[in-house]
Amino acid sequence: MANVKTTPQDMPPAGGYSSITYERIFLKKFFKRSVALAFFVWGVGCVGYYYSYRFKFRTLAEINGARNVLFATLVAERDRAYLKQIRKNRDFEREVMKNVPNWVVGTYYGEPIYKTLVDKYRREDCKEVFSFTDLYSYLYLNHRYTIYGGTPWRF
Amino acid sequence: MVQTESIVLPSVDELNVNEVNLTYPVLKAAAFHLGKYCEFKNNEFMLCKCEQSDPRECIEEGKLVTACTLDFFKQLKKHCKDEFSQYYNCIDKASFNYRFNPCRKTQSVFDKCVLNNLNIERPMFGYYAQVKVHDSSRPKPKYNIIEFPVYAAPVSRDEPLLPPKYNSRRLWSQ
């Protein structure tokens, strides 16, 4: 029996077996916990900003539509008031300056205010229109930007 | 003042018409249907305003706009008074700056009434912000386009110097 040849016996690899891993292996961490929280807050903020922007845009677009419609009505009324007022101003000037010699209405002693627009209609400035009205109507129409947040009145 | 005696201004009787004596929330509440009802007249008036820089040219169109607005509000008063007053009260009191958002329920009631009685449907969202083509029978305005010569006429040295046309511009050079 001593001469019978057999295959070599299984032996441990050279250097011995590696050690058995009995500890728990965690998944790889991409962020720290604080960084992940910051990204989450940023994302929620972006979504909230988008929805609030859309809400505001739609609200203001609807209001602008209503204002576009009313613009014609309001401007028609305003133009009539403006024409009445400049006629009043001219009558008042004629009445006040009738005793002044060489005074011509609408000019400074015959010298036209605008040299190239002699005897031509010119749109009046706001202060000229409100010269002979009460102070508070002028203040309301021109300084309501500072009081109520509207836009000043322009012709 | 700027207006001289030779400038023709319209008389007061010509300018006195029945004005629309309504506050802003009432006008705003009816704005969308009003825009449909008076669309052509509003467009005519705004076209006139864009073409002419003179408010005396567009008085007649403006009177038509005011008359149309008054007519619309009279019809509203006749047919949908309760619904409309409910709606503009909501717009007036629900928010500090007259927003449409808090008043959708009263708005739907009002819309239904206007659709049934005046046969005007509320236009789609953003209708009045769109660019639209307006077919008008108004004649095209004549613009005075000044034509300048290509080059100035030659001046000889013998001609006398004229006084400056627009005061002295050459204050430092002279």
UniProtKB/TrEMBL annotation, chain A:
The keyword Mitochondrion applies. InterPro entries: GRIM-19 (IPR009346). The chain crosses the membrane at residues 34-53. The keyword RNA-binding does not apply. Its main location: mitochondrion. Belongs to the complex I NDUFA13 subunit family. Complex I is composed of 45 different subunits. Interacts with CARD15, but not with CARD4. Interacts with STAT3, but not with STAT1, STAT2 and STAT5A. Interacts with OLFM4. Complex I functions in the transfer of electrons from NADH to the respiratory chain. Accessory subunit of the mitochondrial membrane respiratory chain NADH dehydrogenase (Complex I), that is believed not to be involved in catalysis. Accessory subunit of the mitochondrial membrane respiratory chain NADH dehydrogenase (Complex I), that is believed not to be involved in catalysis. Complex I functions in the transfer of electrons from NADH to the respiratory chain. The immediate electron acceptor for the enzyme is believed to be ubiquinone. Involved in the interferon/all-trans-retinoic acid (IFN/RA) induced cell death. This apoptotic activity is inhibited by interaction with viral IRF1. Prevents the transactivation of STAT3 target genes. This is NADH dehydrogenase [ubiquinone] 1 alpha subcomplex subunit 13. It comes from Ceratosolen solmsi marchali. The lineage of its organism: Eukaryota, Metazoa, Ecdysozoa, Arthropoda, Hexapoda. The gene is LOC105360013.
Automatic annotation (TrEMBL), chain B:
One of its GO terms (cellular component) is mitochondrial inner membrane. GO terms for biological process: mitochondrial electron transport, NADH to ubiquinone. Keywords: Disulfide bond, Electron transport, Membrane, Mitochondrion, Mitochondrion inner membrane, Repeat, Respiratory chain, Transport. It is found in: Mitochondrion inner membrane. Its main location: mitochondrion. Accessory subunit of the mitochondrial membrane respiratory chain NADH dehydrogenase (Complex I), that is believed not to be involved in catalysis. Complex I functions in the transfer of electrons from NADH to the respiratory chain. The immediate electron acceptor for the enzyme is believed to be ubiquinone. Belongs to the complex I NDUFA8 subunit family. This is NADH dehydrogenase [ubiquinone] 1 alpha subcomplex subunit 8. It comes from Ceratosolen solmsi marchali.
